[in-house]
Amino acid sequence: MALSIATRPVNIDGCWAAWTEQARPDIIRTQMENNTVKVRRRTTGNHRNAEVARTHAAEDYQGFIDWFNVACQQGILPTWIVTPYGVEEVWRFSEPPSISWKDPKAFEVQCKFEQLSGWLFPRDRLAADYVENDYVDKYYVV
Q: Which pTM value belongs to this model?
């Protein structure tokens, strides 16, 4: 299985100061005509959502914007994120980041990410195939 993963700028380490995570419900509940509730699975995998935040130095602003807009193609391609438990995993922006300037030397970023069940593999299980451009690497699960 080939997976294109956007590379993160070297000056952004992928760690987040705040991290709130919740699994996305993968079941559908339907009220039947006889008032019973039918429950069925949408998928068998675990989909995760995370809301994260961090303050960056002002000189990292353009790198962060390029990471989202160019490398991740505004949320189309997943990228590497460092989780609070120290593991680098594949996640994808689920909406544009919210940026607020704290002072001329620092800005705060608040982002929402999603992780699909097929992306639950550690980085050492991926074999890099080639670099598509300066922003995207192709990986294969091994």
A: 0.76
